[in-house]
Specification:
Keywords: Cell membrane, Membrane, Oxidoreductase, Transmembrane, Transmembrane helix. This protein has 24 helices and four strands. The chain is mostly helical.
Length: 670
């Protein structure tokens, strides 16, 4: 059995379980059956894709007699597709394992269970698609299944708006992709990827395709300013679906961009990298600034996804710049850093959304200012989330550090680029990425500290209980993967080398030849990193400090009241809140980015009313870009509504005038 047939059989199993969920919608064991089937199908697909990726086998193709009559439906498995199938199915397997426990708390499982396996199947099919028609059809199937999951809790405030905005942006993205593939197919209309790959594309067509792919794939991935649906839709979905949307679906969009721009479009122009680099740097900084201002835990994680998508696109922009100038080793480094971060982000973002779901299950709260002290009530969840926070903050020895370190190593190679525009742009974007990394660390100190440390700020946090073993198993599995990818990055980089060789024609040095499990992206004389030694050093240093303190510190005990920062009131309300942590960042960036204002209501002397502080923040992208467009559409719709009430004679006149106009346009065009 070929690898692509195995993958398609797993997809068929997922689709069959979606139908089975409808048939068994009233059964009490449906949740266990559906998530069990998707766990098994995802695990088999994961093992198959890993075996193909590491086995260095030939590309596998499959043509099904469906779709366009003269084309059929082409499905293909190569190195790039197999890597993204690893990401998709690892995310699907962990979400299914989590769902075995979390799903039993779902209020309306019949709104989730049929669409969850369909969503997984759609993402697999997008990656496997080998022609434009199949790709777009599967893309729409994936979008509609995820939209149904976003609308699963449609009665909750804001979820209907989230579903509507997501549907509009998804339709816009699909239109952009349709136009891009239409340009790639050309006058011959051959939509098979193999034919598109061998065709010659003019610079004008290549430019239009790049812009359309940034609009189509970028809107699904969450590039600024096309990100507006993401912080609305991702938190609205059930938590294990949020993990799939943030950790996996955004990567499927990135796969589409890589497949077209790096594979099908041919040799890029150097100026194209300037656009991708700039958008990536802007997206990274804006995403983490939005996250810093949030007090909703799931919205904070959604905005953090935007930041990480920006990091990935910045690395892809670097790869485009090096590839356009024939620097294959440097291009392979930047490209491998992007793919490594794709994998890493799927690990720690899924873990963090699972942790947010555990908190939501235990407390019913997403507002961090109503939580606190959960490290005592939910110790296992707290530990797993701590690993995720350290990983996403890019701290060694965990995986987030390795991929971002590789990216900065690629930035340091920019002096070899001949164009002055790139010599200026790359260091500037590198500075933006460094700023985003620092802000990410501050953001997740806030998220973890306010949610899990301190004292409970409400009854819900005070009475929380640890979640079920399935949820904990999924979280600890991802936490272990975050550590393993951080201390053993060499095998991951070597597994990515066939992909960089396939796409770019170059590869990084073989990391298995480096001593002591070190990695050297260019050469050991320039830079190297050893995650295992860093972990050992941290462990020895921490243990030595503990032994030293316990052996030589005074054993005398002295008890006294904790310092209350000048406040004598010992209530939990006196603790730092999410707004308190964000205030210094808000004062630096808020005026420019959010038009932030602090409104202080101070009663006069003798008035017993409490003083109040109200913070006003504005989403300038939404208010200045999307609201005017929505207003113009609404105004036009009101005016055009009159066309529904014309007489038969006027309708015939309108049809006649339209026909004459089209004939005139055709005559002039000819």
């Amino acid at each position: 059995m070929s690898a692509v047939v195995l993958q398609m059989l797993c997809v068929a199993g997922m689709l069959a379980s979606a139908v089975l969920a409808i048939v068994l919608s009233r059964s009490t064991i449906t949740t266990t059956i559906i998530y069990g089937v998707t766990l098994a199908a995802s695990a088999i697909a994961l093992i198959g894709s890993i075996h193909w990726l590491l086995g260095d086998t030939a590309n596998a193709d499959l043509i099904l007699p469906i779709g366009l009559p003269w084309l059929g439906a082409h499905f293909r498995l190569d190195g790039l597709a197999s890597f993204f199938l690893v990401v998709v199915n690892l995310g699907g397997a962990s979400a299914s394992l989590y769902g075995l426990g979390y799903g039993h708390h779902e209020e309306a499982p019949q709104r989730v269970l049929p669409f969850f396996p369909a969503f997984l199947a759609g993402m697999n099919l997008v990656v496997l698609a080998g022609d434009a028609f199949s790709y777009l059809l599967c893309w729409e199937f994936m979008s509609l299944a995820s939209w149904a999951l976003v609308m699963a809790h449609h009665r909750e405030p804001g979820n209907a708006k989230a579903g509507y905005v997501y549907l509009v942006m998804a339709s816009f993205g699909t239109l952009a992709l349709l136009l891009a593939f239409g340009l790639l197919a050309g006058p011959a209309g051959d939509y098979e990827f193999a034919a598109i790959r061998t065709a010659q594309h003019t610079p004008y067509v290549a430019t239009l395709v790049l812009i359309l792919m940034l609009l189509g794939a970028g809107s699904k991935a969450g590039l600024v300013p096309l990100h507006v649906w993401l912080p609305l839709a991702h938190p609205a979905a059930p938590s294990h679906v949020s993990a799939l949307m943030s950790g996996v679906m955004t990567k499927v969009a990135i796969y589409g961009f890589i497949r077209v721009v790096f594979d099908l479009l041919g040799q890029p122009s150097w100026w194209a990298s300037v656009i991708v680099l700039s958008l990536g740097g802007l997206t990274a900084v804006m995403g983490i600034l939005y996250a810093m201002m949030e007090k909703d835990l799931k919205r904070l994680l959604a905005y953090s996804t935007i930041e990480n998508v920006g990091v990935i696109f910045a690395s892809l922009g670097l790869a485009l710049a090096f590839q356009a100038n024939g620097l294959k080793l440097q291009a392979a480094l930047a490209f491998a850093a992007a793919l490594f971060h794709v994998l890493n982000h799927s690990f720690f973002k899924s873990l963090l959304f699972f942790g947010a779901g555990a908190v939501l299950t235990a407390t019913g709260e997403r507002d961090m200012d109503k939580l606190g002290g959960l490290i005592h009530r939910m110790p296992y969840t707290s530990f797993a989330v701590l690993v995720g926070c350290v990983s996403i903050s890019a701290l060694p020895p965990f995986n987030g550090f390795v991929s971002e370190w590789l990216m900065f190593q690629a930035v340091l190679q920019s002096p070899e680029l001949p164009q002055w525009a790139l010599k200026i742009t790359v260091p500037a974007v590198g500075a933006l990425l460094a700023l985003a990394a620092a802000l990410a660390a501050a953001c997740f100190v806030k998220a973890y500290g306010v949610t899990f440390l301190g004292r409970p700020r409400g009854v819900a946090a005070e009475t929380a209980e640890e979640v079920d073993r399935y949820s904990l198993s999924a979280m600890f599995t991802l936490a272990a993967l975050c550590l393993l990818a951080g201390i053993l990055p060499g095998p991951v980089i070597d597994a990515l080398s066939p992909i960089t060789l396939q796409i770019l024609g170059g590869r990084m040095p073989i990391q298995a030849n480096e001593p002591w499990l070190s990695i050297a992206p260019i050469a050991e004389s320039r830079s190297s990193y050893n995650g295992l030694l860093v972990m050992v050093f941290i462990a020895i240093s921490a243990s030595a400090a503990v032994v030293f303190i316990h052996r030589f510190a005074s054993r005398a005990l002295r008890r006294g009241p904790a310092w209350g920062c000048g406040f004598s009131d010992p209530t939990p309300a006196a603790q730092y809140s999410s707004g308190s942590f964000a205030q210094p960042i808000r004062r630096v960036f808020g005026t420019l980015v959010f038009h932030a204002r602090d409104h202080v209501e101070m009663p006069p002397p003798g008035d017993i009313r409490p003083a109040r502080l109200r913070i006003e923040l504005h989403d300038l992208i939404w208010e200045r870009m999307y609201e005017p467009i929505a207003g113009a559409v609404g105004f036009s719709a009101d005016k055009l509504n009159r066309l529904q009430f014309l007489t038969i004679r006027r309708y015939l006149s309108l049809v006649f005038a339209t026909l004459v106009t089209l004939l005139l346009v055709l005559a002039i065009w000819s």
